[in-house]
Design a protein that fits this description.
270 residues, alpha/beta, 2 domains, 4-stranded mixed β-sheet, two-stranded antiparallel sheet, 6 strands, 44% helix, binds zinc ion
């Protein structure tokens, strides 16, 4: 049992620090010789995403860029993707770097960037009320100054001002506090996470733990933010419901995330 726990803890520490999805929404020019993906290519690469997310991608320009082209405009920060609205050409651009380190190989990154695309699609192409409704539910003033950013080798990690990173204020993680679109995308990316360990396993591991290991539990909380969310804050559920209403999530995905929501929060209170 102890061995299993050490293995899982080691794996999760690695994974939790790997779970960054910082992306940029600043407009930049895509190199002229780049061709966007065809619908068939989108179906191939994003085949594991739901119809609502794919619908937004079909209406976007999706590019796979060479690492140097991708990074050129981003001050060499290492990012999962780069989705922005080009107001001049009225186009949604979704850019991923290609190469062996590309995070597009992970479903949660594809889901995150596609969520940005759907958010822009609803705002600019369909003129929907989604973003206004989200703001009302969130009741939060998004501000980069609410978080601390640590940068190491081009990778930025976001923390609350007290150094913690568990879900708070109806937000999945500190990065969500930076702006409304990241708040949205950080919920949607959850459909691509959590598949490597069952919450039941975590619960089992931490049943009967001593208070000294509270720090470790907090680390799990930032790896499984939805499971550790405090459901007395109703914003989490309301946001999931709104995402289903606007087809960021299927009924199935919504059901699964609703089931996971807050299911391990009691471990934080032990
Ligand atoms: Zn993002």
């Amino acid at each position: 049992m102890k061995n299993l726990k050490n293995i899982l803890a080691g794996g999760l520490f690695g994974i939790s620090s790997f779970f960054f999805t910082q992306c940029s929404q600043d407009p930049h020019s895509v190199p002229k010789n780049s061709a966007p993906l065809t619908k068939e290519e989108i179906n191939h690469v994003f085949g594991d995403l739901n119809p609502g997310l794919k619908e937004a991608l079909y209406s976007s320009k999706v590019y796979f860029l060479k690492n140097e082209d991708f990074l050129e405009h981003l001050e060499n920060k290492y990012l999962g993707g780069h989705t922005f609205y080009d107001a001049l050409n009225k186009e949604i651009n979704v850019c991923f770097p290609i190469g062996k380190d590309s995070l597009k190989n992970f479903k949660y990154v594809r889901a995150h960037e596609s969520a940005h695309a759907r958010n822009y699609y609803l705002d600019y192409f369909l003129n929907s009320n989604f973003s206004d409704e989200w703001k009302q539910i969130a009741n939060f003033e998004y501000d980069l100054n609410k978080v601390t950013v640590l940068e190491e080798s081009g990778i930025c990690t976001f923390f609350w001002k007290d150094g913690a990173s568990e879900p708070k204020y109806g937000l999945i993680k500190p990065y969500s506090a930076t702006n409304i679109r990241e708040d949205v995308a950080n919920f949607v990316e959850l459909i691509g996470r959590n598949s490597f360990l069952n919450p039941e396993d975590i619960s089992y591991l931490f049943e009967g733990e001593t208070k000294n290991e509270g720090i470790l539990i907090k680390d799990y909380a930032s790896s499984f933010p939805l499971h550790f969310a405090d459901t007395t804050d109703h914003r989490y559920q309301k946001k999931l419901d709104l995402l289903k209403e606007y087809n960021f999530l299927t009924n199935e995905e919504h059901k699964k995330l609703t089931k996971d929501l807050g299911s391990l929060n009691y471990l934080l209170k032990k």
